[in-house]
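Researcher: Here's a chain I'd like modeled. Treat it as a single chain, no partners, no ligands.
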Amino acid sequence: MKKWYVYAKKADFDAIAEKYKIDKVTARVLRNREVNSDGQIEKFLNGTLDDLYSPLLLPDAIRLMNNLNRAIAAKQKIRIVGDYDVDGVCATYILYRGLSKLGADVSYDIPDRIKDGYGINAHIIDRAKKDGVSVILTCDNGISAIDELKHARDLGMTVLVTDHHDVRQNTDEDYGCESRDILPPAAAVVDAKRESSRYPFPEICGAVVAWKMITMLYQNRGLPAEEYQEFLPFAAIATICDVVKLQDENRIIVREGLSKLKESGNIGLDALLQVTTLFEMEKISAYHIGFILGPCINAGGRLESAKIALELFLSEDRTEAFEKAVKLKELNDSRKDMTKQAADTAVKLVETEYASDDVLVVYLPTLHESLAGIVAGRLREKFYRPSFVVADAEDAPDGTKMAKGSGRSIDGYPMSTRLAEVADLLTKFGGHPLAAGFSLPKANIDAFRKALNEKSQLTPELLDEKIWIDLPMPLSYISAPLIHDLEKLEPFGQGNEKPKFAWKGLFIREARVVGKNRNCVRMLLQDRDGTSITAMLFSGADDFVRDRRTKMHIDIIYYPSINEYNGTQSLQVVIEDYKLRD
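Model: Modeled as a single isolated chain. Structure tokens:
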């Protein structure tokens, strides 16, 4: 059950609105997002690329630059090792293209999701050594690859790490050194989350770390800003798709990157924008990147190879680029079909077999293991419970039948901690409070489900989904100027969610099911003062029709928007959640 709460944070909203020439509703939303001081508000509303933090503040940045400069001057072979998701692909592209333009002898490698798993491994390192590589440069991975990078060092290669993930720490009280960080054996380890880091905002993605390194190298050579700013759209795409916080400098990177998206000059990116019909849109938002463009980039790494997307961005031939873009879209279409079928099956299993479980563990033996996390996310959204989805994997070397799984969590259930409590049933696991991955013998799946539920520590209160409302706002206050004013808060995303408004007791004058798949509801709502507005509910039409019956009033959580149809504009609200009343 979803419970509604209203923020009650205080400030002089009239004064803020007057000073920054914004609506007091916009001022209230800023306060709800913890944007408080004059400096924070000014940067949030009017920040530019000049407000970004210097790359020199990142730990080991100068060491990395000096090592790369020496390698470029000595014509040493540099091998970039990235990751197979959007962040990893974009980071690899930025480093490869950026170093190539500086004359570096550079190549790249990206692990295969199924065969290699996440991050650099011994096979990739041995392959690099065989190819005569002198310098390994990681991006979006490497911070936890202690043994693997020791192997590279022992083979005589210089190792440079750029990453953004959490740094493992020594938990002993007497750890015997100045830092708790357990770092890989590398000549430079650039990660804003290091304990010694002076970087003011550590919540940047791997591609932004890569872009900062290229920025530093170009600035060191006195090259014009346009030379390194051409990579900004890729840093923006990765920031959105890696779901890091859209706060502080991330907001600026995304806003500026999106504005340059259609003028990037990258043939491959243009082709993908055209194939996904985004190029013809007047304004591309973070939503379009996160739910349309990003999944196409990800589809290669999920179903075939992440190198398809990387080769697309590196392409210099328009025909080749278009073919690769079409390939990625087709892979994503297949991925969507596979995901829907698997999610439907998983939902039925929960409803028929696991309805009483607080922690959902669903075994789908034939599921492509790269889709387990997406399906787990669908379960979490529908049932609001921690959800794990498990699929068959390759047998272990000793012949043990194995499975792999991914989980998506809710607030109050730290997934990685809970996995650690059942570590005796797993062969490998890792992750974060809200997402995790693991491997285990197939024979342990039932015991895994039972143990997680026994140790869940979930209370009924934690299993109630909470929706936070920015403020109650009557229909009469909605206007085109207000909607345009709220656009100053964009881009929306993790940490800067789209505002939510609410109003109660609206009379349902009309309601009908619409849409190609008849899954939307268009309503005409009227408040007690006689103000009417069109409202759109974009999902759950069947549930609405079933639940409404004779009910004539509705409470809604909504966002106001402007609908354009045949050249005519009209105000409407998009409903996020609702409660029907008699």
